[in-house]
Write a structure and sequence with these properties.
The chain is an all-alpha fold. It contains four helices and no strands.
Length: 74
């Protein structure tokens, strides 16, 4: 639920801009808003885990690229 909230905040804030772009693209392809949020939250969780695993800062650019992969796989 917190990840979903984080995604919604990213879309509202426009940062990263890819969050809003992916949401618009996937909902335009017929996916529900909630389905897209779940997919995006999974990407966010994966990137949070990677940064924890590597004990490094969150890589916003890698995360944005991960979001774009959702769009290209649709």
């Amino acid at each position: 639920e917190r990840l979903i909230e984080a995604i919604e905040n990213q879309i509202a804030d426009g940062h990263p801009r890819e969050a809003g772009l992916v949401m618009m693209a996937l909902t335009a392809n017929g996916e529900s808003h909630d389905e897209v949020l779940v997919k995006m939250a999974a990407v966010l969780a994966r990137h949070i885990a990677l940064s924890a695993e590597k004990d490094s800062a969150f890589d916003i650019n890698a995360y944005a690229a991960g979001l774009l992969e959702l769009q290209s796989s649709a």
